[in-house]
Amino acid sequence: MCTEPHPIAAEAYAATIHTNLGDPHLFETTAEIERECIEWMAETLLDHPAPEEAVGHIVSGGTEANVLAAYAAREATGGDEIVVPETRHFSFEKAARMLGMKLVEVPTDDEYRVDVDALQDAITDRTALIVAIAGTTETGSVDDVEAVADVAEDHGIPLHVDAAFGGFTIPFLRSKYPLPRIGFDLEPVVSVTVDPHKMGLVPPPAGGLIFRDDEFPSLIEVKAPYLSGGGTTQFTITGTRPGAPAVAFKAMIETLGEEWYERVAFRCYEETLKARDIAVELGLEPAVDPPHLNLLNVRLPDEETAETVLLEAEREGWKVSISERPLGVRIVMMPHLSADSVEPFLEFLRDVLEN
Fold first, then answer.
1. Which residue from 28, 87, 307, 324 puts its CA 20 to 30 A from 122's CA?
2. pTM above threshold 0.90
3. Which fold is adopted by the domain 258-354?
4. Domain covering 7-255 in this structure, CATH number
């Protein structure tokens, strides 16, 4: 789900590779740039009614962002359960283990979106956080975040949206395709994960964590007294944080901007739909049809076949990603790919399945 960074981002990254966001008084300009990036995401991608109030950081990735969201919710509510769709990213298992919390997994429908009725039933007085996924790792499925927000509001429970993958595409695709709102215009949403190092085309590590305001992150801050300017407070897991990813992201925003990201989102998704058509013509079965985002998952019949696909693909020089739920092959249509470039692989896959 990462791709070769844009040359502008790579140049900005290289120029600021020495900067450390963990010491914001020493690298004041870099810290201000990070702040501007968070505000841009809050306003442009997440419909924050007051984006200047948003609080967040460019962190090491979606995993750190999700762990921090769960940590803050635990401190804010006193609960120890995270209610997640069964399609959740593995980072929530990490979060639960690290924080001494319990994962409560909720089943999904036939398009791998969370079952909202089952979600309603899973909530208890120990629930600290509800999670909705805007672009699952295995199928690219998008939960009905608006319906999940209604459940969260009914129970007075914070909602975290894991839009690590979909955060740079859903806000644009919604104008044409049936996708939900995922941001802070939904009142129960307290935090969102959006990763610039995925569809933002920024060099990793560049995960994004945005809180609605300072209420939740203030609960997990610690003081770092020995740093420049009399010290600072931090709520990230890492102390030293590279500033280069934030500067690279800012360079993308300033030189290419919202319209460019919108074009990329539509191009990648529409190429995914073309690849879906090719797959069906070849007799392959998409797990989600049509795909919700720029990820085509092709079903595999059994584990033995999956092992064969991996083995044969390696021999042919293909690097293949197998999903477990459902069992399938993931094709993530990043900007360096097209339906034409993916077609030979789909033909290879068809040949392996037929033989």
1. 324
2. yes
3. Aspartate Aminotransferase, domain 1 (3.90.1150)
4. 3.40.640.10
